[in-house]
């Protein structure tokens, strides 16, 4: 298979193409690299979103749509959106018959949805791959109803120094070997490690969300801070006098 690798410039076409190449074995590789913790983190994200029957929810960077299917199980109407057609194809193949679930190819920096269309928006392990994440946070706010909510599930920075050093050793030395053993494009997971190391810590991401106009921003760590869930609410727009 052709090898393709993104870099920290995060050109959308390159990143999308990279995910197209890893789509078929993406879930299996994630299970292996996280020792199954990805399922625990997905359940935590679903609980944080708290989907309700009849709500309309955007699951951006849906990937193979396992998170979208989990949200739709509540009776919500869920739009699974991703900029990788290969990933969405896998999602449709596996979850195309799930009631209330639809699929849309979409760019996080220019979403094809109306203002205030969704009761809740969520994004798991995708914001880090967007070329301009602050633009994406503003776009997510735009398509959320006033009073609606956002949940961002993203790799983060373990606060404990010793654990952080162990985690970085795993990412630098172990993760690439696991990815090449079980994955379909080992170089793609070199980018994964680089993007995690370059990503801001929890407090900075919370500040980005406030800058984008989100309010009541808070976060909590999962797995000692390997992953963090950031939550916030869309308040009413300020009226200029």
From TrEMBL:
Pfam assignment, any one: Ubie_methyltran
Biological processes, Gene Ontology terms: menaquinone biosynthetic process; methylation
Catalytic activity of the protein: a 2-demethylmenaquinol + S-adenosyl-L-methionine = a menaquinol + S-adenosyl-L-homocysteine + H(+)
Swiss-Prot/TrEMBL keywords: Menaquinone biosynthesis, Methyltransferase, S-adenosyl-L-methionine, Transferase
Residues given in the record as S-adenosyl-L-methionine binding sites: 64, 82, 107-108, 124
GO molecular function: demethylmenaquinone methyltransferase activity
CDD domains on file: AdoMet_MTases (cd02440)
HAMAP family named in the record: MenG_UbiE_methyltr
Function: Methyltransferase required for the conversion of demethylmenaquinol (DMKH2) to menaquinol (MKH2).
Record's protein name: Demethylmenaquinone methyltransferase
């Amino acid at each position: 298979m052709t090898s393709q690798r993104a870099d920290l410039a995060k050109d959308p076409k390159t990143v999308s193409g990279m995910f197209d190449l890893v789509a078929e074995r993406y879930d299996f590789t994630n299970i292996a690299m996280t020792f199954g913790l990805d399922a625990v983190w997905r359940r935590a994200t679903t609980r944080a979103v708290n989907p309700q029957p009849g709500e309309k929810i955007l699951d951006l960077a849906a990937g193979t749509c396992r998170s979208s299917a989990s949200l739709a199980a509540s009776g919500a109407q869920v739009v699974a959106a991703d900029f990788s057609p290969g990933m969405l194809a896998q999602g449709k193949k596996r979850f195309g018959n799930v009631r209330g679930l639809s699929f849309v190819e979409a760019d996080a920096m220019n979403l094809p949805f109306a203002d205030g269309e969704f009761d809740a928006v969520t994004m798991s392990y995708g914001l880090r791959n967007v070329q301009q994440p602050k633009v994406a946070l503003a776009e997510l706010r735009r398509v959320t109803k006033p009073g609606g909510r956002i949940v961002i599930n993203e790799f983060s920075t373990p606060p404990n120094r010793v654990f952080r050093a162990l985690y970085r050793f795993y990412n630098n030395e172990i993760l690439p070997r696991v990815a090449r053993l079980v994955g379909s494009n080992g170089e793609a997971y070199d980018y994964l490690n680089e993007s995690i190391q370059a990503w801001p810590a929890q407090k900075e991401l919370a500040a980005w969300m406030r800058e984008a106009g989100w309010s009541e921003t808070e976060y909590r760590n999962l797995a000692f801070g390997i992953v963090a869930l950031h939550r916030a609410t869309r308040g009413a727009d300020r009226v200029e006098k």
